[in-house]
Amino acid sequence: MKNSVSEQNFYIESEEEDEEKELNRDGEGEADVNGTDSDESLADDNRQQSKTGSYNTSWPQSYRQSIDLYSSVPSPNLTFLGTPTLSRLSSSYLSSSLTRRHTPESLPTVVKPLLDKPEDEQLPPQRRSSRSLLPPTLLRRSSSIRKDEKLSRVSHELPMSRQSSFGQALLNGLNVLCGVGILSTPYAAKEGGWLGLSILLIFAVLSFYTGMLLRYCLDSEPGLGTYPDIGQAAFGTAGRVVISVILYVELYACCVEYIILESDNLSSLFPNAKISLGGFELDSHHFFALMTTLAVLPTVWLRDLSVLSYISAGGVIASVLVVLCLFWIGLVDKVGIHSEGTVLNLGTLPVAIGLYGYCYSGHAVFPNIYTSMAQPNRFPAVLLACFGICTLMYAGVAYMGYTMFGEETESQFTLNLPQDLVASKVAVWTTVVNPFTKYALTMSPVAMSLEELIPSNHMKSHMYAICIRTALVISTLVVALSIPFFGLVMSLIGSLLTMLVTLILPCACFLSILRGKATRFQIAVCIIIIAVGVVSSAFGTRSSLSRIIENLSTRDFIRNNDEGLSFFPLIKTSSTD
């Protein structure tokens, strides 16, 4: 540990020398700085450092690292965990040093000091870092970029290194936005009617604007790098915790959707698959849900998820391939009833609102993408391209799917595709394979946040981590089997959670952080967006819950009148969504 401290001191001093040269300072060290700084500037600087450093001292501290893996944001420390002090931890599975709160190597601190305070205070005066004595303006200018880029040499944490190019940032944004929501856009068109597609465009515009608001919040003061950081800057520690919980619940719900998705599509490919266990018989839906859970469980135990992260980046290719298959089947193979559809369905429009809202649930990752860009000024272009491309794909799939299948459109259009066509097989199998790589990455942030709450205990942390992750996976299976309605669950997520993350909270945080600098136009727009988000969330959540309860009641009625009950409740086909 002492060697590590010495190495850190060396790098700090080297960095300071480079910065002094770049800033044309002739001082020889700390004494010159002390001679030019006033007591007032030192006090302001210390308060600023304390404020920015406090953003990552509250739970969750693992947010940035886990979300960077989830969104495939490039990082030099993603695969190789740093200096030789961790080289002995080469195991492929969870290790205690990677799941403990007090281990500095594993925590993705945004503005964490390079040295612990007690040890730093014990250093001789000539060895202490002069960074704390820089004026606030120079501190912001130097620490926001240079310090973060060089942090990788002295820490095992995941720094805010601005290394992503425009293309990488665009790919990461598309990978987050263009997910399983695209499978349900034809179903959303059926629920809302053709005029309901205008909601998709409205949400795209509003989501783009709120994404820009997050950028303004990040730029408002140094030290902000993630969505929870923004929440803490706006509403204190309570804001950080509340926003984090909402984001984690949304990720957990996405994992539930993956289980339902696999069960529905695999059972459509093998409808006669079933198994008997101790006198209990599992139909195809239960069987494939159970098999999916067993298949993804080992991936959740993995310590190094960088391989899965790179593979899951192919989610954009998978989405494009599925879209091309749909258009090929409709335009080339001439499959479909070519229904004219309904202009507007007011009764089920709230369900469509939740489905369309779910399509733009990427704001949890946008701050990470922004802080990782080598050219942050190009973030608006990245955001515009991401929303433009995804909206075109969503609208195209909604139009083609609803035109082809009309009122028979399922909650996933892959369930409507003829199984005898090659393009259908490609689309279905692509849909089946993709969630296997994304499940662990999606669940990892939730698991890491819970592992932070475990009392410090080196001997049992490995077992605790395994138990937590196993329990989370099993719980997603239970929820998926209890509420096996893919479209309605997605609508509930979009209405209850995505509206908060995408529309309401960005505006609320912006108004809180920049309340003295926001223009009247910005304030008015934020108020309108919050109103739209609240109304959409209220109607969408109520409609989704009522439909889920109705389907559960119908399923229970069928179960009570059916013989040969299994130990899981019977699952109706997803057409009831």
Report on this structure.
- Pfam families: Aa_trans.
- The chain has a two-stranded antiparallel sheet with strand order 1-2.
- The protein is globular and about 60 Å long.
- The protein is mainly α.
- 64% of the residues lie in helices and 1% in strands.
- The N and C termini lie far apart (58 Å).
- The protein contains 20 helices and two strands.
Kindly summarize this structure in a few lines:
One of its GO terms (molecular function) is symporter activity. The protein has 577 residues and is an all-alpha fold.
List descriptors.
2 strands, two-stranded antiparallel sheet, transmembrane helix, mainly alpha, auxin signaling pathway, globular
Instruction: Write out the strand line-up for the largest beta sheet, numbering strands in chain order.
Output: 1-2
Please work out how many helical segments DSSP would assign: 20
Percent helix range: 55-70%
Taking Cα atoms only, what radius of gyration do you get, to the nearest Å?
A: 26 Å
Structural class estimated from helices and strands: mainly alpha
- Tally of DSSP β-strands: 2
Assembly type of the chains comes to: single chain
**Biggest sheet, open or closed, and with what strands and sense?**
2 strands, antiparallel
Broad shape: globular
Distance between the termini: 58 Å
Low-confidence regions: 1-52, 73-93, 95-160, 565-576
**Percentage of β-strand residues:** under 5%
> Which series of helices and strands comes N to C?
HHHHHHHHHHEEHHHHHHHHHH
Mean pLDDT: 77
